[in-house]
Write a structure and sequence with these properties.
54% of the residues lie in helices and 10% in strands. The model has no long low-confidence stretch (mean pLDDT 87). Helix 3 links the parallel strand 2 and strand 3. Helix 1 runs antiparallel to helix 5 and helix 2 runs parallel beside helix 3. The termini are far apart. The protein has a four-stranded mixed sheet, sandwiched between helices. With 143 residues, it is an alpha+beta fold.
C-alpha cells in the first residue's frame, strides 16, 4: 500500500493528478485521463457520475482501499473522493502497485490493460534527431 501512496504523491507533485468531480470529468471528456480512482467510501452519486464520465472512454475506473478522509489528508484537499491520473506511465505503475497490494482481479486486469497501453505509447515515440531533424524538430541545413 505504501507504493500506491508514493505514486499518488509523485503524481500530485508532478502535476499529473487532478482532484474533484469537475476536474476529473473535464479530463475524461478531453481524453487526457488515463486512470480514474475513487475512494472506498465514495457516495453512490459519485460512483454513478464517474461511470457516466467513462462511458465510451478508454480509461479504467478503480476503487482505492482508502476512504475519503485518508485520500483528502494525503492530497491536502478536503472532501476528495475522485482523482484522475493523466500520465500513462504513472497510471500503469500505480495500477500495478494497487494490484499487488490488494490482489483484486479487477485491479490486476486494469494493470495489465494499462501496461499494454503504456507499451504501445512508448513504442510510438520516435527518438529525436532521426531523418535529418534536430532536437527542435527543424530540418538541418545540408552543405
Amino acid at each position: 500500500m505504501d507504493k500506491v501512496l508514493s505514486y499518488l504523491g509523485i503524481a500530485r507533485k508532478a502535476g499529473y493528478l487532478l482532484t474533484g468531480e469537475e476536474n476529473c470529468g473535464a479530463a475524461v471528456r478531453t481524453g487526457k485521463a488515463r486512470l480514474l480512482l475513487l475512494a472506498q467510501d465514495a457516495s453512490a452519486n459519485a460512483v454513478s457520475r464517474a461511470e457516466g464520465f467513462l462511458r465510451g472512454k478508454m480509461a479504467p475506473l478503480l476503487r482505492l482501499p482508502l476512504d475519503k478522509e485518508e485520500l483528502s489528508r494525503l492530497l491536502g484537499r478536503p472532501g476528495c473522493s475522485m482523482v484522475v491520473l493523466t500520465d500513462a506511465g504513472l497510471a500503469s505503475s500505480l495500477a500495478r502497485a494497487l494490484a499487488e497490494a490488494t490482489g483484486a482481479p479487477e485491479h490486476q486486469e486494469a494493470a495489465r490493460a494499462l501496461a499494454a497501453r503504456w507499451e504501445r505509447l512508448r513504442s510510438r515515440r520516435r527518438p529525436a534527431g532521426g531523418k535529418g531533424k534536430s532536437m527542435t524538430g527543424k530540418r538541418r541545413k545540408t552543405v
